[in-house]
Amino acid sequence: MLGTRTGIDQNYRQQKVDKMNPIIADSPFHRGEQILQQRLGVREKMERFGRQVIHDQLPAQHRDFYRQLPFVFVGHADSQDWPWASILFNKPGFMTSDAASTLRLNASPVAGDPLAAAWHTGTRLGLLGIELATRRRNRLAAHIHEVSPDGIELAVDQAFGNCPQYIQSRELVALDKQAMPAPEVSALSEISADIREWIESSDTFFVASYKAVDSGQRSDGADVSHRGGKPGFIRVDGNSLVIPDYLGNNHFNTLGNFHETPKAGLLFVDFERGQLLTLTGRVEVLWDAEEAQHFTGAQRLWKFHLDHGFYQKNVLPLRWQQPAASPNTLLTGTWAEAQALEQAEQQREQWLPYKVLRVVDESPDIRSIYLQAQGHQQPSFKPGQFLTLRVMVAGKPVIRTYTLSSAPADDVYRISVKRQPGRAGQPEGLLSNYLHRQLCVGEILEAKSPRGDFSFDAAELRPAVLLSAGIGITPMLSMAKHVLHEGMHEGTRTRRMRQLTVISTARDQQQRGFFAELDAIAAQSNQHIRTYWALTQPNKEAQPGRDFHHRGRISAAFLQAVLALADYDFYLCGPSDFMQTLYDLLRTLGVNDGRIFAEAFGPASLVRECDTTKPVFKPQAAATDALVSFVDTQVQQAWSVGDGSLLTFAEAHGLNPEFGCRSGQCGACKVALVSGRVSYQNEPSVALADDEVLLCCAVPAAIEGEAVVKLALQL
Q: Which CATH class is domain 60-338?
């Protein structure tokens, strides 16, 4: 029944899409492609783009390209509408185009290829010309216009280019066909152990799909496309394959065909031995599969269910050597990695061991510590989030949170810690001084998975400004590194880089933590990321424009000088007085409150001036006294109004809960509420469920009878 219900919901949603967005009859895309483009929010853009790049004839460069290839991949559908992917080959020049509207192929299908049965006039074919050594490819939709003893002549329906992402480069070696053993073809209806091993170790396959020729559009018919990934990116479940769908050109040729005809043909090439595996079966697109969340690079998944196929041995006199992964492929994952990430998510509440790989002094007061996961998968994180550490100092566990200054793509964590010196009436920072003075490379520290709501979206189109002071530079560094990684040329998944302006303030040159690293990030970004420094007390040898860009604190005049007119998102991080001053300054410059995002360190709470009417926070009455029980530690104590927050109360009774800001902004001290009610005297910034409590700003609430609060406090 669950599957039936899901099908009804999907059909209902699809009917709504169809009614809201009628199909354009003269579009370069057929109905299924248009529906998927609409579903994923790219319909209007792709219609404009498609009319410019999809041609009804072969451009001159395509004609030259096909002429130099020794092979081409072909997709078609048989008489039962089963799609098949094939390969045709001959010496370079076997494909020629005497006119832009035609392409002649001097080749024939290999032994056991279902394409042989469709080798007649009128058959719709999809072609993929691909040069693996250069990762260049072009697509063609056509139909057989004429069949001769030498091959076929195709009439062009559509032609367009494809980007090179996910193509592993390979060097071609051709063999003498006459010296090859006799072909061997075996029919199959299930996936054996050796076939499974072949598929799961593959980094490339080709997929054919089909849209029935029922609308008279040139976009109807067959298609064949390339799919690539790391070995292990395909998972075999019995006779089914689960395959990630990565960011592509937004044409949705393959998935659009799946929408209309939920069948596919898959072709696997043994590049070293010249064997072929061609399969056909049914498909389903898994739009909301939870598994996709853990598979790096996957936008969604699709599943192939084998119906039948052929194992073709000794049919291909071509070999490829020295495979090299595409830069895009390196940004994706495997099923083994996805499983490890899923397990890591399940370990989010556990203390896990990390080894100190190295330490680097970034300034006299800031030290970076590089941490490597030990015996477990390093959990993923968002730029701007923090790591919670538990370290034994003088025989006692000390828990603190430190923002990650590494990027999510880095293979180790990096935290950057500012040493807190002692001041009049205040002792020096216990853990920060230990990490600066006593921590050794090779030491094992414990940490929980990264968390925090102060984060950043590199794919957002709106430009952003990152404003920081002191150690507040750490989340900004993580954000800048992430933007650079996501937007780097061919290595990008989003194919654009967010415009970023990083403005940091320090006292003098010696206090500029990460100065060289930020400069390097800006230099690699092709002017998408800019960095500026404001020094309040620059040394005499400091040169303006090289060592700093503004003398004094960040001012309105300085911001207006370096920021062009635009609608920015602003991110603030630093001491409380810096945060409030910059927030107030931005408000006077007309920046909307909703465009200002902030992360505070220590007992800082940003006083905001909201632009929209929202309910006034009314604190619930606090209890005069209560019984507080920390059920996981079996600690039960009487609380009274002078005992402060539940965090302060827990610490006073020898417990060491996690905490970060101590002001309700970071969420590090969030615990489960087992029973009872709590009151917040100040409105927390962190979203909370009904059964969650922020220890740092909560107290027991006043209720009738005896106030009892039970909390699940894991230490």
A: mainly beta
Which residue spans of the chain are classified as CATH 2.30.110.10? Answer: 60-338
CA angle, corner 363, sides to 362 and 364, nearest 5?
A: 135
- 224-245: b or e for each residue (b if 16 or more CB lie within 10 Å)? bbbbbbbbbbbbbeebbbbbbb
Q: What is the pLDDT of residues 179-212, one digit of tens each?
A: 889 999 999 999 999 999 999 999 999 999 999 9
Higher per-residue pLDDT: 5 or 173: 173
Is the pLDDT at 300 greater than 80? The verdict is yes
Beta carbons of 142 and 125 less than 8 angstroms apart: yes
Residue range 464-600 in CATH 3.40.50.360: no
Residue ranges, comma separated, of all CATH 3.10.20.30 domains in the chain are 625-712
Decide if pLDDT at 616 tops 80: no
Q: Six-digit token pair at 624?
A: 């005069």
CATH number for the domain formed by residue range(s) 347-451: 2.40.30.10
Q: What is the DSSP letter of 666?
A: S
Which residues of the chain are in CATH 3.40.50.80 domains? 464-600
Q: Is the pLDDT of residue 170 over 90?
A: yes
Residue 605 has pLDDT above 80, yes or no: no
DSSP 177: G
Distances (CA, A) of 593 to 383, 489, 568, 590: 22, 34, 12, 9
Contact yes or no for 666/386 (Cβ under 8 A): yes
Length of the chain: 715
Instruction: Compute φ and ψ for 12, nearest 5 degrees.
Output: -65, -45
Q: Selecting from 2.60.40.10, 3.10.20.30, 3.30.830.10, 1.20.1530.20, what CATH number does the domain 625-712 have?
A: 3.10.20.30
Q: Across all residues in the chain, what is the average pLDDT?
A: 88
At 298, give phi and psi (nearest 5°).
-75, 125
Residue of 548, 524, 523 lying closest to 536 (CA atoms): 548
Residue 601: which pLDDT band, with cuts at 50, 70 and 90?
low
Tokens matching residue 561 = 């000088």
The pTM score is 0.61
Measure the CA–CA gap between 559 and 464, rounded to whole angstroms. 13
Which is nearest to 500 in space by CA: 458, 561, 471?
458
